[in-house]
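re: that chain from earlier
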Amino acid sequence: MKEPKKLKRKRRPAGQKLPVSGPAAEKANAGAHLTTSERPLHDYVAELSERTEVRTCVPLPMGTHEDGGGVNFAFFSRHATRVRLELFDHPQDAKPARVIDLDPARNRTGDVWHVWIKGIRPGQLYGYRLDGPYQPKDGHRFNFQNLLLDPFAMIAFRRTHSILSKEQFYTDAEIQWLGPQRGLPNWANPQGKQFGCLIHEDERSALCLMFNAGADAVEFGLPSVPAAQWHLAVDTSPEAPQDLFAAGQEPLWENPHTYHLSPRSNAILLAR
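^ sequence. v structure.
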């Protein structure tokens, strides 16, 4: 008589566990449920936003930069603790059409805050609100109530008007110094806090820059430029976006003879 064949045990792959049923299975499943970590909801929301119209993007270049059907916003602030970007449809709008709060964990690289927004076009009006320490002795005056101008917008203004980036001193034919009330700056007065200048770009265009570091408003007389009219480019006294106008969109200044400059403000007018 032949001996019965021995049953061979089938080896299971390494790491594979046998199925468990009954009470032991219920206990194991309960343990697995307790140890499984759930993903926070804000992670899903952040991931979804990265795929749609608002993304973290990159910290460079500074300022605004068109990229991939949108615009990347980037600016430097080492001590800001909270940043909000506000977009406006019109310069006279008191309320923004859109608000984007930047997440310090996602929208900050080193000391640069950045965000990309889909569908933004050249000429978009915007401003920033920043929160942080208020320590005037250390140069910190953060106030979230103030809407701020992008400092790199002024860099773009200088690039548009190359006369402001000269490496040599201005000649007498290029610059004319101005003071309040159509006078000249009193350079001998150490308390003097107002002055201006007229810079000629060519025969038919010029820039009028006015500065008032005092606590009182002053009036500057506007010099005449042949065959040209004054247009307002910059006035830092209003909040953004009313303080800076895009190239080609500067409104005509209705009073061609004088300009009323608010305390602690600067203004630039273009003659063209």
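The longest helix spans residues 23-35.
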